Amino acid sequence: MKIPFVDLHAQYLSIKEEVDNAIADTIRETAFIGGGRIKQFEEAFAAYLGVKHVVACANGTDSLEMLMQAMGIGKGDEVIIPALSWISTGEIVGTAGATPVFVDIEEEFFTLDPDLIEAAITPRTKAIIPVHLYGQAANMPAIMAIAKKHGLKVIEDCAQSHGAMIDGQMTGTFGDAASYSFYPGKNLGAYGDAGCVATNDTVLADMVRMIANHGQKGKHNHQMEGRNSRLDGLQAAILSAKLPHLGKWTQARIENAKAYDGLLSRTGVACPQVRPNSRHVFHLYVVRSNDRAALQKMLTEQGIETSVHYPTAMPFMPCYAHFGHTEADFPVAAEYQHKILSLPMYPELTREQMKAVSAAIEKRDLQSIFS
Ligand SMILES: *Cc1c(COP(=O)(O)O)cnc(C)c1O
């Protein structure tokens, strides 16, 4: 059975008419840049999150990077980030001129370990960027308490956590601001690049909006050097068409994760755990195997696509070699980078497909016993 890692076409077919109409309407209106389509999506997503402001932008890396600039974080500053994330989380600290300071992840939940944060704080520390990795909420109550104690800003990287919650509160509403990506494969995805900043801080929202539009405050009034990070109208229209379905899709991901948990309990892989009192939205379903390379190869041979998020934890990447970190500095991330394997996960995934995945893993278990 051929099982793709993600199936964006299946989702498109399920909402084809709504999406096609949104695209056709936007083209008819020639609302390509700016205008009502952007505002409509910003308001709808702000209402979904329960925040005052959403500022749409070109992608989820820009939204993080613009927050660095808007908060005045740069040369000489340090920003605490988890050792395991997509490179954007580290990259934007460096491109802002600041220094990323890595902190290891929690063994059970893959997110920034609050118990290790204080040891990483120095007089130069300006902010913490927790990442709700794989759709699992980071321990925001603990992280916010530390940030408050030390007067640090908190930017939540919500690129993988649309709709995730902890203690009944949406991720993205704990910190000073949140960054979202709507890359096509994310839980809410556009049909190209897209992202946004979400915040309750009006001054910060205005600043990000200005940076995203060449530092303009009104036409030709350039208050500062900004950039072009506009979201285009077509992407906004597509996102508005898709947003009403996000709740149902999230529920389907959660149910699929439960089904996987049951099916895989008989196998040798370790299933992901969900933080108590939280809603994990399973952007990714990440298992751990002592035998990852062989398992992945065998699944590939059977037509089952998998992926690794991420094969190298950030401190060990060539671009951060100058820090001279060793595996002993981040034992959990160092161990997990060799064990983690992301299985196919999306709302449209069927029980038959999940059964085929678990059967293939069981078969591999047997092979490794007898080999
Ligand atoms: C996808 C992602 C980003 C970046 O989003 P883009 O829209 O691709 O720029 C940032 N952080 C994390 C954790 C991500 O998964």
Defining traits:
2 domains, 3-stranded antiparallel sheet, 12 strands, 371 residues, alpha/beta, Aspartate Aminotransferase, domain 1, binds pyridoxal-5'-phosphate, single chain, 13% strand
Topology:
Blueprint lengths: L7 H7 L1 H14 L6 H14 L3 E5 L2 H11 L7 E5 L5 H8 L3 E5 L21 E4 L11 H11 L2 E5 L7 E2 L2 E2 L6 E5 L13 E5 L2 H11 L20 H10 L3 H19 L13 E2 L5 E4 L3 H10 L29 H9 E4 L7 H20 L1
The site of pyridoxal-5'-phosphate (PLP) has 15 residues, from helix 4 and helix 5.
Your description of this structure?
The protein is an alpha/beta fold and about 375 residues long. The protein folds into two domains: about 10-100 and about 110-245, 3-Layer(aba) Sandwich (Aspartate Aminotransferase, domain 2), CATH 3.40.640.10; about 245-370, Aspartate Aminotransferase, domain 1 (Alpha-Beta Complex), CATH 3.90.1150.10. The chain contains twelve helices and twelve strands. It has helices spanning about 10-15, 15-30, 35-50, 60-70, 90-95, 140-150, 200-210, 235-240, 245-265, 290-300, 330-340, 350-370; strands at about 55, 80, 100-105, 125-130, 155, 165, 170, 175-180, 195-200, 280, 285-290, 340-345. The strands form three sheets. It has a seven-stranded mixed sheet with strand order 1-9-8-5-4-2-3, sandwiched between helices. It has a three-stranded antiparallel sheet with strand order 7-6-10, with no helix packed on it. Strand 2 (about 80), helix 5 (about 90-95) and strand 3 form a beta-alpha-beta unit. Helix 4 packs parallel to helix 5 and helix 4 packs across helix 7. The two termini are about 25 Å apart. The relative contact order is 0.16. The chain binds pyridoxal-5'-phosphate. Pyridoxal-5'-phosphate (PLP) binds next to helix 4 and helix 5.
